[in-house]
Amino acid sequence: MTWLALILSLLMSLPAWAEDPARLDLGGSALVTTGRGWGGPQPLELRLSLTKPVPYRTFLVDGPPRLIVDLKGADLGLAHPQDMFGADNAPAIRWGAYRQGWSRVVVELPGPYRIDRAGQAARAALSQITVALAPVAAEDFAPRPSATAALRDLPEPAETPDAPADEAFTVVLDPGHGGFDPGALAEGESEANLVLVFSLELRAALQARGINVVMTREDDSFVALERRMTMARQAGGDLFISLHADALPEGQAAGASVYVWNPSADGRATEQLTLRHERDDLMAGMDFSGHDDALAGVLMDFARTDTQPRSESFARWMTSRMSLLGIVMHERPVQRATYSVLKSPDMPSALLELGFISDHDDRANLLNPQWRERMVRAVAEAIVGWARDESARAAMLRR
Fold it and tell me: Which pTM was predicted?
């Protein structure tokens, strides 16, 4: 029996229950305040984003007050609860396997609460469980009578080792345009300058968080599109982000948006890459010299089966953070496109439109240091959270 036949035989023999569990999308999950506390705890809302709907149950226990959310057929992986947006709104959050087929989330509450409402709604490829909590007086708190029984069998959270210092996560920031190519122009402002200013501020924020940052340009200079990806690959980039602030006729578009590669264009992209690049510059760590275009194309398409979902995951992290920090987004915040800077088969990539320079409000935001600071925080938190999530998933694969 060949190896291929053996693998197919093993796959066909898997039991029916060996389906993929619902997985936590940490980038789309959050614990947020939804109102004022008037001197006491604030109303809270827990949002758990999963890759598909699951049966669930919620209840409260005391000693101290805690919210319990049990999820059937969900895998919370090795993601750290403290990396969830708004985790500092609660004294502590834990999660882990509860019993066969179940996972449990425990949120320690800052006081007595009631469950105001709970529901599950499907959104595109994800499902979101939302639990709204309202603070109550101590005498109105109605937890389950046995907290010990409710919390039985919950393991300690899994720990993942920190990456060695020489394996620091590297982000490549690509401020669009530059030099004799100013990009979009409006009211005396140029896209090239606005995105450069933002990129420099984002670099400082990322470096303060321990992220290694490489920039394709640090001044008003021109860098060819294909050269930008070459620089990213030579730097050993783990994530590539191109930054823009385009222009459209007035009234046609406003708000931030994120673009990822369009998989339907893979064949054309592969052909263009093999024609435009040296054979040792198509994928990091691989030299295609002496191999024909067909082999190079197959290997690059195979690599995209890994990088494409990771790029899309990062786009969700980014739009989630922007939404939670009140950043106005385009009506379609995540879109697919065939931009040259998104072609790389071996590196997760995204293009961030910070807004449209042609729109009065977007242009004012880009010129406003307070807005830029908020946007920098959104992007930086998305990068850090996504990087940790990637590390946790990689550790699971190694097992």
Answer: 0.65
